[in-house]
Write a structure and sequence with these properties.
Number of domains of chain A: 2
Order of helices and strands of chain A: EHEHEHEHEHEEEEHEHHEE
Strand order of the largest sheet of chain A: 2-1-3-4-5
Distance between the termini of chain A: 24 Å
Largest interface: A-B, 24 and 31 residues
CATH architecture of the largest domain in chain A: 3-Layer(aba) Sandwich
Largest sheet of chain A: 5 strands, parallel
Number of helices of chain A: 8
Shape of chain A: elongated
CATH topology of the largest domain in chain A: Rossmann fold
Helix content of chain A: 40-55%
CATH class of the largest domain in chain A: Alpha Beta
Oligomer: homodimer
Number of strands of chain A: 12
Strand content of chain A: 15-25%
DNA sequence: AAAGCAATTTACATAACCTTTACATTGCTT
DNA sequence: AAGCAATGTAAAGGTTATGTAAATTGCTTT
């Protein structure tokens, strides 16, 4: 994870660099608005930490110009006692703010939250739910096993989707019947067994290890990655 | 811009509806988590404002379930004094949060900030769309398949246009009926099937590969480049 | 009113696919 | 080991959605 830090407080920059580095981030720092901006415009970061009060051009202006070309998430940092216009920041496209002096742990939490959110959005933009070699994209109803496309029928897709959403947990046949087939499970209804059998067959063409485990008397489980 | 508001505070809902309406948004409101969720899952909004404390199911659960199928940006609203786990909300895929009581201008700024960001992301995604051999010019209503002009009727053009704008995604017959034909899809209405059949025939004169795929029980999908 | 189109409906063929049946197998209990 | 219930699955059956030619309707133009 790459973080760009634009702040003229040398001491703070050093502290943060050390702290974030020790948590697995790689940090690049600039101390002026103008130079920081041109660097940000030409390089890709996962998050930018941007001080409001900066030599060169101020943080708001940096954000405004940056937003004309980049969507990189920005957390704005405000100096102690500084009168910060949060609404203005939001309108310019800031993603979060933090008032100095701030707790390092809180900064870390926010950076992580933002990077995770970006990941989530990208994942959702691909529309995929990926786990242990099984990937489903609800939007297009496509399914992949170990990156090989498999053709599932509507019901098969829904069942696998349900299992994937409850990965590692037992899903009862009753639940599958009600949620996917839309009816109560009748005593000798073997329909779900058949669907599961067919799904397994299709997955097995690409993945050797059995993914859908039967829990006798209880239901089915989609095994987790471990 | 369409906003879905899920909040059980009737008074707040009325105030917000009035305020946001006056700024050009159209508002739909639900007062329970369960009903709000099922509506959100089946309709498209630009932003969802979601209260955390809700009758039915709580806001976190609504968000979690919604995120399984929809990308709609969500701003979470927290009641006064409520202990809100912000990081948890972000992890579930919330896009922002706001503590009550909040300033209306701030809410508006955040809604606008989010819709703008989403637009940007969508724009970026569209720019990377590859050519798939189908080209429509809405202005002159001309259609081309592999650069050969094809003659489409008005309805055919509209349907193909809709599919193209949702390239790679399933478009249901219901959606086509409502958006193109301007009426609800009736039980034995085969009109859309015929239009699709005719469009396919015309495309097939110039492109061998089937472009419009049927997803049984779900709708049609215009395939991307691959 | 006839002609010309486009949209829709009808009618039937076909394909997809869900379910049932039937029998084999597994796993648990006694 | 026997017995029983649950599960696996191939094959058959039946239902529903879809494809499409052809007829019909509806609208506009001539």
């Amino acid at each position: 994870m790459k973080v760009l830090l634009i702040d003229d407080d040398i001491e703070l920059v050093e502290l943060l660099t050390e702290y974030l580095s020790s948590h697995g981030f790689s940090i690049t720092a600039y101390h002026r608005g103008d130079t920081g901006l041109s660097h940000a415009q030409t390089h890709d970061y996962d998050v930018i930490l941007l001080d409001v009060m900066l030599p060169g051009i101020d943080g708001f202006e940096v954000l405004k110009q940056l937003r004309q070309t980049k969507l990189t998430p920005v957390i704005m940092l405000t100096a102690k006692g500084e009168d910060f216009d949060r609404i203005f920041g939001l309108e310019l496209g800031a993603d979060d703010y933090l008032a100095k002096p701030f707790n390092h742990r809180e900064l870390l939490a926010r950076v992580k939250a933002i990077t995770r959110r970006i990941e989530n959005i990208q994942q959702l933009a691909n529309n995929s739910l990926e786990e242990n070699g099984i990937r489903l994209t609800p939007h297009t109803r496509e399914a992949f096993a170990a990156e090989n496309k498999i053709e599932l029928t509507g019901t098969e897709f829904e069942i696998l989707f349900l299992l994937l959403n409850n990965q590692g947990e037992i899903v009862s046949k009753e639940a599958i019947s009600e949620q996917v087939l839309g009816r109560k499970l009748a005593p000798f209804d073997r329909s779900i067994d058949m669907h599961v059998s067919n799904i397994r067959k299709k997955i097995a063409e690409h993945i050797e290890q059995e993914k859908i485990k039967t829990v006798r008397g209880a239901g089915y489980i989609l095994l987790g990655s471990a």
